Amino acid sequence: MKLALVMALVAAPALAEAPPEPDGYRGAPYSAPVPETLAGATVVDTEGAANLHRDGKAVFIDVMPRDVKPPDLPKGTIWRDKPRDSIPGAIWLPNTGFQALSAEEEAYLRAGLVEATKGNKSQPVVFFCRADCWMSWNAAKRALDFGYSHVIWYPEGPEGWITLPKNPPLQRVEPFQAL
């Protein structure tokens, strides 16, 4: 009896179902299990993302958020932005995967997508953040809502990327600077 209980507890996480797609955008907590699908988009695993990267026809968009300098930081305190290592060639559009975006954040996302795709809404665009992060799901869904027709969601992110030995190593990126 005890063995059966232990086996059931060990197997339970593997049997857990992915959550369903929400009707709109997903809010906090963003670091949580994600769905297996995104209506209107293609979902790829690490092998699929690697193939797209090698092919060179898709652009990669990293939406990992960036820490904001606290407004009440004591005078004289040195603030250092946390560095971001990402998939080589990715454009980092931080803070664009939240449930709700300010007008400035939405404009930043739109500008980054236009720059990345050279204005071609049929350009394949791969969105990622990190494993089990809703921000890439939200950003990819938003791109679909903006009219992009070849949206690809890579839910495994850099954590998945580094598991494939043939992939090039992660590279340090800086946030996209809109003109």
Strand content: 5-15%
CATH class equals Alpha Beta
Question: CA-to-CA gap between the ends?
Answer: 66 Å
Architecture (CATH level 2) name: 3-Layer(aba) Sandwich
Radius of gyration: 18 Å
Largest sheet: 5 strands, parallel
N-to-C order of helices and strands:
HEHEEEHEHEHE
Helices and strands: which structural class?
Answer: alpha/beta
The average pLDDT is: 90
The side-by-side strand order for the widest beta sheet comes to: 1-6-5-2-4
Number of helices, where a helix is a run of at least 4 consecutive DSSP H or I residues: 5
State the helicity in percent bands: 25-40%
How many strand segments? 7
Instruction: Kindly identify the CATH topology.
Output: Oxidized Rhodanese, domain 1
Spans with pLDDT under 50 lasting ≥5 residues? 3-15
| CATH superfamily annotation | Rhodanese-like domain
Overall geometry comes to: globular
Number of domains: 1
Outline the structure in words:
The radius of gyration is 18 Å and the shape is globular. The longest helix is centred in the middle third of the chain and has 15 residues, at 103-117. By secondary structure, it is an alpha/beta fold. Helix content is 31%, strand content 12%. The model is unreliable at 3-15 (pLDDT under 50). The strands form two sheets. It has a five-stranded parallel sheet, with helices on one face. The protein has a single domain, classed as Rhodanese-like domain (Oxidized Rhodanese, domain 1). It has helices at 2-15, 46-55, 103-117, 134-145, 157-161; strands at 42-43, 59-62, 84-86, 91-92, 125-128, 151-153, 171-173.
